[in-house]
Design brief:
2 copies of one chain form a homodimer. The first copy, chain A, contains 10 helices and 11 strands. With about 300 residues, chain A is α/β, with parallel strands linked by helices. The first copy, chain A, has a 6-stranded parallel beta sheet. A 5-stranded mixed beta sheet of chain A has the order 7-8-9-10-11. In chain A, α1 runs antiparallel to α4 (about 135-145), α3 runs antiparallel to α4 and α4 (about 135-145) runs antiparallel to α5 (about 155-170). The relative contact order of chain A is 0.11. The interface of A and B includes residues 94, 122 and 294 of A. Chains A, B: It catalyses: diphosphate + H2O = 2 phosphate + H(+).
Chain lengths: ~300, ~300
């Protein structure tokens, strides 16, 4: 029985590239594996796949009765809806430990690094499997994306060394230029429906019983949002109501200025004051130096809900 | 700030030896670590520690505000009572994924092998740290204990290879003889208070909201229990009442005959029928071939509660 290797809902480049890279590795060591996805590739991911000649993995929603290897999270809210009826055989991740549980032993490769693909590289090294050129390319791009070309506070020396090694395998001389090209693709918001922008990199978290949705858009210049900010605000308010959420937060991250404007709709008017020591004014708050949802946005928020 | 490396409540040899071995490794790679324990070493563990010249790790109950590295489980019921107020920096384990969660990224080295010390050996290899002779000895004994000298269905080729490598480092020629010596120590039940026997290797599980306690005594001949079986049965009934448990099960495992007699007190008279297809008669049921609580006892029970 093959295992399906699948990342989180609303997949980012780490989830998609990680699924492809890990499925290849598993097949090389004699464990049949199929890369899968829970949603459409983002424009950034589509750019990466095309650049290195890959098709998107299999779109698959249901996993009851299947073996599943989870990539890039360990949260029920980010897993397939029927994950409780599947057998989780492994997890590769770089986030906090979430609420997925299993009834049988499994493997977990979880490390506090900047990207799941950095951990997958460690798995290739452990099994002594050679990484094909094009797979090295997509793994490298996933790490450049997750670490915001090494600017994110989540970036570790392991991530940097990993990108350097993968760039050499992939034959990419100027990987930072490729990273910037990628972020330019990511910054093109014009012509995209507002809901698509909000959902592009959106994750729901269970915070002490409260459902909190947090989206993030990383761009090279926040001015791209000037024309659509009011629409974004209206849309996250609608999303909060639709999903019965306590709060919906949207991070507009400027990777060059290295900070984020957070758009906030919440049942708790003091939420950002308590979590980040900065009050929300007219539904907006600027968080200087904040690039990472995982490291800088989620943990203080969880404390605020505790 | 040092991290405390600590195994589960009612520690077995894997928890104690693993804490010592992992704390040593962490200190070698520049991360200050202190081995700790949540309870008294069993006679088997005391034998191992004495054989290789170790003191028992620090007894420490409270961890609020501390950094903790969890060994040999990922379950709230088996962790320090105040674990929610501590920061879990890592987990090394070989069981199903439990209900521990964190609010920050961590490392998890979890593999479906027979013993946490087999995973800790992988960590030594990853960091390229030499294992001292005496630490190799206690790691080897922990693996021989958890895998019942390779007889348990939880034993993998990784465990066997690991024992062989550790035996060579420790300079032990006949490791199976040492294993049998260890199980003879484990089999000496005479003169031990009945409650101590029941609790010697006892774990509580949350099964779909029901608290289920499962103890196990592994011996080389079940006849050692002839004189005390009635007392054991009275004591697990008392334990069930005291702890508000749905069921208390005690496995009397014969490692030579390779099977277990299960003593059962439960709110559900059909529990073993539903879980194992064998009815309990007069509070007892023989489970042929059953050596492993983790692999053969817990998963079917969880299914029965699902």
């Amino acid at each position: 029985m093959p295992m399906y290797v699948v990342g989180h809902k609303i997949p980012d480049s780490d989830s998609i590239c990680g699924a492809i890279a890990l499925a290849y590795l598993k097949n090389q060591i004699g464990e049949e594996a199929i890369a899968a996805r829970l949603g459409e590739p983002s424009p950034e991911t589509a750019f990466i796949l095309e650049r290195f000649g890959f098709e998107a993995p299999l779109y698959k929603e249901h996993y009851a009765g299947e073996q599943v290897y989870i990539v890039d999270h360990s949260e029920l809210t980010q897993a397939p809806d029927d994950i409780a009826e599947a057998t989780i055989v492994g997890i590769v991740d770089h986030h906090k430990l979430g609420d997925l549980t299993t009834s049988t032993p499994l493997e977990c490769w979880i490390r506090p690094v900047g990207c799941s693909n950095t951990v997958i590289k460690m798995m290739y090294d452990f099994y002594n499997v050679e990484i094909p050129k094009n797979i090295a390319g997509i793994m490298m791009c996933a790490i450049l994306s997750d670490t915001v070309i090494f600017k994110s506070p989540t970036c570790t020396t392991a991530d940097i060394k990993c990108v350097e090694a993968l760039a050499e395998i992939a034959g990419i001389e100027d990987y930072k230029a490729l990273g910037m090209e990628m972020f330019k693709v990511k910054s093109a918001v014009e012509g995209t429906p507002v809901r698509d922008l909000v959902m592009r990199d959106f994750k729901d978290f269970n915070m002490n019983g409260n459902l909190v949705g947090i989206g993030q858009l990383e761009v090279i210049d926040l001015s791209v949002f000037d024309q659509v900010k009011a629409e974004l605000e209206a849309d996250i308010a609608a999303l909060k109501a639709e999903g019965n959420r306590h709060s919906v937060l949207l991070l507009l991250t400027d990777i060059m200025k290295e900070g984020s404007e957070m758009l906030v709709v919440s049942d708790d008017a003091d939420l950002t004051e308590r979590a980040y020591g900065k009050a929300t004014e007219n539904g907006r708050v600027w968080l200087d130096g904040v690039l990472s949802r995982k490291k800088q946005v989620v943990p203080p928020l969880q404390e605020a809900f505790a």
